[in-house]
Design goal:
disordered N terminus, alpha+beta, 3 domains, four-stranded antiparallel sheet, 10 strands
Length: 475
Amino acid sequence: MTLTTSETTPHSPPSTTRSRRRGWLGPLLLRLHFSAGILVGPFILIAAISGALYALTPQLEQAVYSEQLHAPETETSLTLAEQIEAADVYRGDSSGLFAVRPAPEPGDTTRIMYAEDGLGPSESRAVFVDPGTGEIRGDLVVYGTSGSTPLRTWISNLHRNLHLGDAGRLYSELAASWLGIVAAAGLALWVVRIRTSRARKDFVRPNRTHRGYRRLFGWHTSIGIWVLLGALFLSATGITWSQYAGANVGSLRAALDWGTPSIDTTLGGETAGTDDHAHHHGAETAPTGAANPATFDAILAIAQRENVNTGQVEIKPPAEPGTAWTIREIKSSFPTEGDSLAIDGTTMQVVDRIDFADLSLPAKLASWGISIHMGVMFGLANQLVLFVVAIGLAAMVVLGYLMWWKRRPAHDPSTRMGKPPRRALSSAPWWGVAAVGVTSIVVGFWLPLVGWTLLGFLLLDTLLGFVSRRRSRTP
């Protein structure tokens, strides 16, 4: 099959007609790239802009919540028990103690986290304590096991579901799923055109001498090739968060034993797989087991002698009587630290452990991919790259609509927009139509919002082409 976008007339010689039939894939990709961009463009635009904003949340958090996150450095340090007691006094209630995150660095605060009635799913209340003096620096409702602040949570939910709950997640799944398809089709078209162009350098940087449609096309093409890898990465990792395709990815990983194991807190129970996205949307409940404040210090001391040796850790009391305490590293930046322990609070013996270094490569790649997507793996550099890619994607959507506008017929006031590329399936052989249909169905099982919408597009496009031909034959 030849990727070509050449047109022929009804009076073309037989050899040209055969070439046209062989060249159906290129026009199909062009029409798919155009139609998907027009229809899915608004979703990609919203996801890109909100994603760019989310990439900046670490800096925004530090500026907005500096009082809560930081405290003056002191030469003395209180025990975790003393800090917990200070938080209990502040709240006037010691029940619902959910987790403790010791201050990771000098100048940081300790988070004492509580489960409370009236909070939303996965939310808890964090009391920020000065580890040197026990002063309460503030309290905030935080989200998930990542403990994201209200600002980050609001931006995250905007990016994830437009604050519309599960129904809104369809928007982000549609954007993430189709982003990869549109990008791949654009790459194929870019390869075809750069091979036949005399000015190949115009395909990697815009030609500033061009005007009108050619100028817009140059910017759209150049930006696209530079953000291509980022777009494909964001699409692939974003799909793992999605409602339907994400569930399929999770099932596949479980079937191949590529999941990340969770710590076993039971005595003789089975270890279950955990959700790699738990730090983003984990569901948490209030513990019902014993939570003696003094035990937190003992658990931390034991863990530091084992494998939990970073400053960024979280300690949780037993979820219910008869289960173990857990302590885990929550450092997701490079080098990733994800070791965890389960400790019997009665005997102070380690009953289970997970070392990040022992995880399978697919499990590590999933963890790293999520951290990069969230902009936390490589710190500021990671955030800047994500911001640039997101802004580039948003610019490409806007340029695409401007190109559509520019292609409208200048002497036909009844036509407000440009004409779409010609239909391709009408010139495809029967096996080509069948292959495209089967591919859509297969993709639909794994990526429902891609496969089924693609199949619908192909059926509608074929029907419109049939109607158009019937009208053209009518005297």
